[in-house]
Amino acid sequence: MITQGTSVGLDVHARSVVAHARDVSSGEVRRARLTPDYRSIVDWLLALTGPVEVCYEAGPTGFGLYRAIVAAGIGCTVAAPSKLQRPVGDRVKTDAKDAAHLEKLLRMGELVAVTVPDESTEAARDLVRARDDARGDLMRARHRLSKLLLRQGIVYFDGSAWTGKHEQWLRRQRFDSPALQATFDNDFDAVLTVTRRRDSLGEKITEMAADSAWTPVVTRLQCLRGISTLTAFGLAVEVGDWSRFTGASIGAYTGLVPSEYSSGQSRSQGPITKAGNAHVRRLLVEAAWHHRRTYRTPSAALRARWDVAGPVAKDRGHAGNKRLHQRWMTFDERRKHACVANIAVARELAGWCWSLAVLDN
């Protein structure tokens, strides 16, 4: 709880910031509507009775305001929106009321803070998410092109699609209608353009993974099957400080634990919560499918990654690979639905990733 100075709640939007400040000693309240310029916000805060404590909700405006406030020597908390206590039955929502509510929760010590990444980590996350966006754009561009051809009765059946051979087949397609040819050329060019963009971003991520602050963690994470350089780097920068968690709590952070409603003697579990970082959850779910394949002799690529990671990480990764494949075998024997089983394996995979990430070389 704040017992002296001034507590401030900020309701931050792209074009405006509403501030609600309370002098804890006198009870005096000051309100203001400020511009989103960091300098003007900091100047207004510095004019308040110190020490000043500020809070605002995490959102699309990022953490630039947090860094500007902290650089000015003012305490700041970025609150997790999903953990805010909301008044029951209150049907009036305004920026001023939101700012006042944040200030009250800050003063009472009832806020759950998010972990603010440093600027280099945030930049690396943006790079990883840019490639993920390009990946999604490529999928949509491919669908548009394939469905255009399907409407003309043209289907590729000579092997797997989106290979070099498939690309040469696409380049040979010609249409009598100028409009149809222009549409095909546009959609095909979109596929080629987005492919180059995705590959370029992948190369930049690979370069950073090989020589950056995240290289040790990336190297150790690759001791597990299904986790290559891009996946390992994505997990490393998205999670950031792995020491915040334990092997048990990392699953909840990724939203891979079952939801639950219990009352009295009844206990009901439902689908996974899907809370926390969605990008981390997707990476883990995709990697978990690789552990369904038989694990006997490690591949040459996996052995090469073990040599780089060292003997301790190698032994840990080998144990994790065996355990996760055994889990898949157990689920298959029980005839568990594959998607449900994969979520359970992904949850356990998160724990193995944590154990490797916090490993001391």
Q: Would you identify the regions where 5 or more consecutive residues have pLDDT less than 50?
A: none
Mean pLDDT: 93
Shape: globular
**Strand coverage percent:** 5-15%
Number of domains in the coordinates? 3
> Which sequence of SSEs, written as H and E, runs from N to C?
EEEHEHEHHHHHHHEEHHHH
Characterization of the model:
The protein is an alpha/beta fold and 361 residues long. Strands 3-2-1-4-5 form a five-stranded mixed sheet. Helix content is 53%, strand content 12%. A hairpin with a 4-residue loop joins strand 1 and strand 2. The two termini are 40 Å apart. Helix 4 (119-151) runs antiparallel to helix 6 (178-210), helix 4 packs across helix 8 and helix 8 runs antiparallel to helix 10 (278-288). The protein folds into three domains: 6-108, 2-Layer Sandwich (Nucleotidyltransferase, domain 5); 119-212, no CATH class; 217-357, no CATH class. It has helices at 38-46, 64-71, 95-108, 119-151, 164-171, 178-210, 215-221, 229-239, 250-253, 278-288, 300-309, 311-333, 338-357, and strands at residues 6-12, 17-23, 29-34, 52-57, 75-79, 258-263, 266-272. The chain has 13 helices and seven strands.
